[in-house]
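Forum: Protein Structure Q&A
Topic: Joint prediction for protein chains with partners

I've read a bunch of threads here and the consensus seems to be that you should model interacting components together rather than docking separate models afterwards. I'd like to see that in practice. Below is the full input, 838 residues plus whatever partners are listed. Could one of the regulars post the assembled result?
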Amino acid sequence: MKKLKDVLLAREANSEIVIGNSALVRAMIEAGTRVVSAYPGSPTPEIAEAIRSIPREERPFYFEFSTNEKVATELAFGAAINGHLATVFFKSVGLNVAADSFVQLGHMELIGGMVIIIGDDPGANSSQNEQDNRHYAKLSYIPMLEPASPQEAYQMYKEAANISQQENMPVILRLTTHVCHAKEKVKFASWQRQEFDSKPLFDSSEENYVPITKEVFPLKRRALKKLEKTKDFAKSKNLNTFIDNDNYTRGIITSGLPYLSLQDVIQQLDITPPNILKLGMINPLAEERIIKFLQNHEEVKILEELDDILETKIKRLAFENDISCQISGKERLEDWIGEYTPDKVIEVLGRTWPDMKPAALEERQQPLSPRPAQMCPGCGHRSAFYAIKKALAERDITVADIGCHTLGFLPPYEMGEALLSMGHSTSTGAGLSLFNEEREVVAFIGDSTLFHAGLPGIVNAVFNNHDLTLIVMENGTTAMTGHQQHPASGANFNQKTEAIPLRQVLEGLGVENIYETDTYAQKKLQQLVEEAREEKGFSVVIARHPCMLKFTREQRRQGNYKDKKVKVDQEQCQHIYNCISDFACPTFQRDEKGDISVQTDLCIGDGSCLQTCPAKAIEFVEQGGDKND
Amino acid sequence: MTEKVKKGMKNSQLNELNRDIFLAGVGGQGIGMLSEVLIRAADYAGYPVLGVDTHGLAQRGGMVVSHLRLGSKAFSPLIRKQQADMVIALERNEAFRAMIDYLKKGGQLIYYDTSWQTLATRLGQEKDITGEKIEAKAKELEVKQEAVYKENLADARMQNMVLLGHIAKKERIPEIAVEDYRQAIKDLMTGSMLENNLELFNSLLENES
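Posted by a regular:
Agreed with the consensus. Here's the joint model:
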């Protein structure tokens, strides 16, 4: 087997098929990165999976999953002002969490250098919005590079690190979902393990790191000057590319994945394609180059995903320089929405230049409704929602948080009716409880999210004595992003730890009514939620069951996995359909006659379904003569 | 320093093989491994390859697709709608869905003959997709279709290998040789997993007519 670790640590130049996220780790190693921190969030967690492939003692840098993105950013900042090249990575909306500290970074003299890797998610594949984080580059006066492919991600990380170290300033590397996850053969340079100096270089007598009142202005002035200087790097470091199709009538300015989509579309056309200016540096823009491009073409289309960041700046350049070129950008609302896949680029370009529209696709009807994501067979959240739904009144208001349990909003559970962001549920629930005597409020939160951003809301509920019930859906891991450890897991990325005890944390914060049970004890959970719901003030129910996907994987790895299954006794079955309509484990299948059977490829034999069948028709499959129960 | 300038490519320079393969299944069916074997096999066969897996939210039970693009004409890792030369599906519902959305006229659908019913089917709102339905739709769309199935498979997680064995045996991707697949499998697995999968792959090549 080829091991990822061997590719990442190879001394000689080599090439390998990897995803963008893995390519970044090789770049970190080659660049001499010393400290890396993160909070898991799609599309970036595979960066940590690649790091995990290298045993800790061979890893050339320190890595941790911090409790949230802000903490991770501060950790990297601290390392950078002590002389270490640092990197922090997280998903698009993670930057909102980090923002309070992040916006200060440009003001600081980062003597070790710092690269911020952001995984934006156009198309909202796994996010609650598709925010365009290019806005943050402008807001914070920080340069931003944008690769289009894994090969570019690898190269641009090294350029970003280089600029950062040279100017002692932070640099953002912005990737999008299908750049992070794209696979291709990436060419890696050679690498020698370097000796690091561990001398702490932080020196507050040399540099001011405390921006208070009038001290802000020199720091801001320096940030703006540095940013101005980085304009030249687009040229000197070859970050932008001109694709010469010998067409000086039409030009396109684009960047990132939309550039690749555009190239795809061009291959399918018989007309002379437009010349293309592909920008690798998004902030600041290479103004002179763009002006030249505008002057050299009669019409220029700005092809950019999500918001009109390039368009606004480029139109301003045209105005200030009195350029007559006809510039078009976003033309209608839909241009602001969704990923710029090749299909989308055809739509967007075709409206500006109808001759760039390939033959229309045939009309095909898709009769199948989408297959939504769902909780896994055996998931403790399923038992929880099944039981909790029975405990609540029809008009109760349920508030979801971020995590696997968010899927409870889908039918048939329909639990968790409002969602903002990580950790919002307790405070949103508290707001819903005001001037509300009629409808009880129940909020949900996962255990990783609770430590990430849930604590302030809980403290507030105690502090201001809000009347709601919080149900902590504790599965012992950060499940949705791939089972990363969290403070109550009993291990961090690097080693075993004392798990921070959830119940004692809540007690310590002054929560008086705390109930807890395993979620497979469905009747008990129902009863506890009924009690908690009746309590005045703030109460918490800890609804616990380990993530069964993680649990069974570990069992398989350790060789003690028992291949248990359940079956439906057709004679007992009374076609009540509780198993599919209310409990809704995907294992239960309905045939054309309406009979229920078990899809054995899916069933893990956890048996949490047995108690849900009023006819007692679900039973364990007997194995080797012994009846398992 | 001079600016990076690339000469645009003309269509005439790109008349070599280009093949877009769209894989579809449900989380937990091993689609990631199948796509990884294919991309590496194509690389061993000497083709430029690009790909991307998309897996939305859930670990298990949601729709999972993978795009695989062979040849130098591919830039984006994503395949356009109705442009795939081949759809490989691990299950009937996703086979049906992907065939309609992604397969081009004259293309080839290969699917594993099982069903992981959708929520709508389980709730009785939609009928399950049968082999007959796939056949009828394939005829309407003018695409080829074939089902693959193996009785008494030791582990359901090896259904992807049954598909791979079929594709190799029938040379459904003519550019990729059996040895390329084998080498890719060896790159990706180790221990008993490698043994079991390789044994199954080899037996499929021998036995299937």
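The first helix of chain B runs from residue 31 to 44.
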